[in-house]
Input
Amino acid sequence: MSLLRSVGRSVKEDTKEALMVPVDLVRGVGYTVDEVRNGRMSPVEPVKTLAITLGALAIVLTLLFPLYWILMSALSGSGGSIYSSGGLRLLPTDVSLQPFVWVVGDLIIPAYAISLNIPLTDLAVVFNTPQVTFLDASAHGVESPSGFKQFFVNSMTVAIPTVLIAMSLIVPGAYALSRREFIGREKILFGYVLLTQVGGGLGIAMLIGLYTVFVQLGFNDSKLALSVYYAATAVPFNTWLLKTYMDGIPVSYEEAAIVDGAPPWRVVTEVILPLSKAGLATVFIFTFLTGWTEFVVAQTLLGTENYTLPVGLYSLISEYSIPWARFSAFALTFAAPLGLVYLFAQRYIEGGLSFGGVEG
Amino acid sequence: MSTVSRVAQRVDEVPFLERGDASLLLVLPGLFMFSTFMLFPILYLVGVSFTNAKPSNLFAGDGIASILTFGEATFVGLENYVTILTDPAFWNSFGITWLFVATSVALKIALSLGIALVVTGERVRGKRFMRSIIIVPMGLPAIFTITVWRGIFSSAEFGLANQVLAEFGFSSIAWMSQRWMAFLAYNVTEAWLAYPFMVIITVSALQNVSDELHEAAMVDGAGYVARFLHVTLPSIKRPVLFASILTAAASFQQFLIPFVFNEGGPARANELLILYAYREAFSFSQYGQGAAISLVAVVIIGAFMWLNVKRGRLADGVNEA
Output
């Protein structure tokens, strides 16, 4: 996997660079001190730079403070109160992971008895598999854990079909739009871009129509119907994204393959698809996230036992008996992996998460 | 002869298509699926808006045929439109939606321009690092961000906003039960949700401002403010305007923030247009009127699209490659 290898290489370079930061910093400071001592630089300059940098850092940290606060709320027993008689309190007091235990609940593989009958005899061999306990919630003082696992399974059964259906619609379309000339091509592209950039709320605006049709067809509360819907809504943006990515692959590669006598389908499977791996990975992530994070339609169509994670999260805030620490832990367990995947993909999937035609 | 070329030959026989147009078949499945789930509900919405649909009659009939007859709902002509256009509640929602668009877009532009200037500032060290962590909120699901901000504006003990107010010696505020306080909370949350997108576009615009112009202005004795007003602003005007149109459309379509915060309350005062349509249908069972309101929203979203085509450079990329 060349994609994985290139990601690995950039991770290595980044780590090396990150480790060098303190060394560079010390060197830079030493250099500046020398300059000032020798009178080649006014002492005001470094002080100014330092002050402005600290100001910028303060602004950045203030902006991201809500995220820090939610982490602190999840970790501290006091439930996210930064206010105390002694002034602001920015570190969690009495740190406890119990809210996270409440979110995850029991992680126990129950014991099974497997019996094998030995042919031609009356004998049977019985294996008793041991009970494997990764996490026993009640041992940590959690009586009724959250429905996180159920929501997680529901979300998976929505998101995986979404990805499969969406990819099978998007990849051929993106290829055709990038490499072939046909009637109505520009009109279709234009429509896709338009709907992508502006029409985010159209889905909610026509929710009444969608809901009515789904109820009349008996599709409401069906996770599969929901994933088909998600796949359909993911088509314009992701087709556009993959098309822009494929546009960057030089045509000469394909020409070389054709000269070597490759039929059209082999040009696609052996030149285009391998070269657009990063684009495909991005589209994979985006379509998965469509199914994983969508809230409004899922909330309207699904019944309680089919709630996906976002709907489950929302259902927690109307339960006033849920302590804030537990809510925070639930929200973080849901969102933190996505934030990390986003940061990682943003940095390491080359040209992947850029905004199609929007930039500039 | 392979299937592919046989298909191509068939396509050739259709009068207005050419052989090469067979590739259209690769695009059609996606286009068809999208239209099924996008265009059909909109057409259906148009139909419902002309009937007196309520759950009792809309879902009454059975079988596929009842979809086309809208259950047992009856045709009432333009009655729904007359009702909503003479309803003060509709105009309240319409007004608060446009006010929200105006205030939140102003706030978003000011905030993101400020941040973009900070993270491209000449004297700021560690700019690349700051830029990469500042856009983290973009990777978080909207429902997460909005529920967290609901917690921030909560009147309960843990509510961060009230804790900060208390720190500065103010008394605490019941954010969600006062109309304008709730509106302020919507604006702050919307700004926080949307700033990464605006910052990305503004930063890339700022990096394209030519150094020569700045140097020429400095030689002429222009200070920081003068250079910002006469060099930076004119050069970044277009991309920022473009981003503003997009983000204005997003503000107009905001649904989740009022829905999660207090369902457009207090007393339906802050229901943004799409939420108003949603509640009219799903909370008050007026499907016909809900559909009519939704269509008004769809028309305005269409106007945003038109504006984008006219003013933005949205479609430029289409003709490349």
